[in-house]
């Protein structure tokens, strides 16, 4: 390469680095990553000038967020040991104290005599994306909350019927207990039996109200390790309230030894409840023996596949194309958000809400929740 060609190449490289929306670097895999090269993008990214970082007046680890530095150190060490590239997202604090989210990609390009890795890479600001993701998550959580409130409102008559039964029993048992107490010789054994039944009915009514309260509470989405069997049994009990009133039976099938799943249990239950209610509405007129909706949970490649199967009229090709579009509803009082919100919830869990027509009739909606990493 001639001197003029070399100068042209160097100029082009410098121009490229200046135009990159971030900072290219070269550092040593030592505590706080001392750097011997950073591109001019460091000033906009960190507030520190090129010479402040290269002269090691300040080290990259000095302004990496203290809660993230161990994570970043682990990623870089793994890369240095394996010789492979790494990617990570973490926070930094700029010279003026502003907190930013950054994305970094780097790889070892050489090793010193003592085995210290020389790392080259690129770091860019992803704070706007993180803010957008947060706003989207909050928007989804608000819509999910509204949908839960709407679902509970539509189920109000079924809930009232469900609560009225134990309340009626409580009233009768209370009257019976008072009658037994007014006798000249109180029948202690019978009174004890009546009070035990009264307690059981009060717990029954309380359980219905508690499930309603949990479903309608406004809360941030929180994904963690969840006992799938318990989650399925709880939503089954909630759905049965309306099912009995509609003359439906919900058949619950849960395979043995399901792994724990990583999810927000309330939001997943919301999706299942929406699909079960849709399944009941898909059957135009239940027969006198009642119709069956199937709710299944099965092992699937380290996770759990959840299926909701109805015996309705199925989904036409035309409806299938616009099934998840918001504000489309066949119900007079429906908002048309249930399936759209359900899809976004399942997407946020790293899965897809899918469907297929069921033979000989009806529809299957299904999705898979990934197993919790500590369980696999």
List the main descriptive attributes of the protein structure presented here.
single chain; 376 residues; Beta-Lactamase; Heat Shock Protein 90; 2 domains; 5-stranded mixed beta sheet; 12 helices
Strands ordered across the widest β-sheet? 2-1-5-4-3
> At the third CATH level, what is the topology name of the largest domain?
Heat Shock Protein 90
Low-pLDDT runs = 1-12
The overall pLDDT average reads 81
CATH superfamily grouping of the largest domain: Histidine kinase-like ATPase, C-terminal domain
The strand count comes to 12
The top level CATH class name of the largest domain: Alpha Beta
What percent strand?
15-25%
The backbone outline, from C-alpha atoms, is elongated
Q: What is the CATH architecture annotation of the largest domain? A: 2-Layer Sandwich
- H/E topology pattern: HEEHHHHEEEHHHEHEEHEEHHEE
Radius of gyration: 30 Å
The portion of residues assigned to helices is 40-55%
Q: Termini distance? A: 55 Å
The number of helical elements comes to: 12
Q: In the residues, how many domains can be counted?
A: 2
Helix and strand content put the structural class at: alpha+beta
């Amino acid at each position: 390469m001639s001197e003029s060609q070399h100068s042209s190449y160097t100029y082009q490289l410098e121009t490229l680095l200046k135009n990159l929306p971030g900072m290219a670097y070269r550092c040593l895999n030592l505590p706080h990553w001392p750097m011997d090269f950073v591109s001019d993008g460091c000033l906009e990214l960190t507030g520190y000038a090129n010479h402040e970082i290269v002269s090691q007046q300040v080290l990259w680890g000095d302004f990496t967020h203290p809660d993230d530095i161990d994570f970043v150190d682990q990623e870089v060490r793994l890369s240095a040991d394996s010789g492979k590239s790494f990617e990570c997202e973490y926070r930094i604090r700029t010279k003026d104290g502003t907190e930013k989210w950054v994305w970094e990609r780097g790889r070892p390009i050489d090793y010193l005599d003592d085995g210290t890795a020389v790392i080259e890479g690129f770091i860019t600001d992803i704070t706007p994306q993180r803010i957008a993701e947060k706003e989207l998550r909050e928007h989804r959580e608000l819509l999910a909350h509204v949908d839960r409130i709407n679902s509970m409102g539509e189920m109000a008559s079924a809930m009232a019927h469900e609560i009225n039964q134990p309340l009626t029993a409580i009233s009768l048992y209370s009257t019976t207990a008072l009658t037994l107490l007014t006798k000249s010789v109180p029948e202690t054994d019978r009174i004890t039996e009546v009070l035990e039944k009264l307690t059981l009915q009060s717990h029954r009514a309380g359980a219905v109200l508690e499930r309603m309260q949990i479903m309608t509470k406004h809360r941030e989405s929180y994904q963690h390790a969840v006992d799938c069997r318990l989650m399925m049994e709880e939503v089954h009990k909630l759905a049965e309230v309306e099912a009995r009133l509609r003359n439906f039976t919900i058949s619950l099938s849960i395979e043995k030894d399901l792994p724990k799943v990583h999810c927000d249990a309330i939001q997943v239950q919301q999706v299942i409840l929406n699909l079960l209610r849709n399944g009941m509405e898909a059957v135009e007129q239940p027969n006198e023996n009642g119709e069956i909706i199937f709710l299944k949970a099965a092992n699937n490649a380290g996770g759990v596949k959840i299926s909701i199967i109805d015996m309705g009229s199925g989904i036409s090709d035309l409806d299938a194309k616009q099934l998840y579009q918001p504000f489309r509803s066949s119900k007079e009082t429906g908002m048309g958000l249930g399936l759209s919100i359900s899809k976004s919830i399942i997407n946020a869990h790293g899965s897809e809400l899918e469907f297929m027509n069921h033979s000989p009739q009806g529809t299957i909606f299904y999705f898979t929740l990934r197993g919790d990493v500590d369980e696999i």
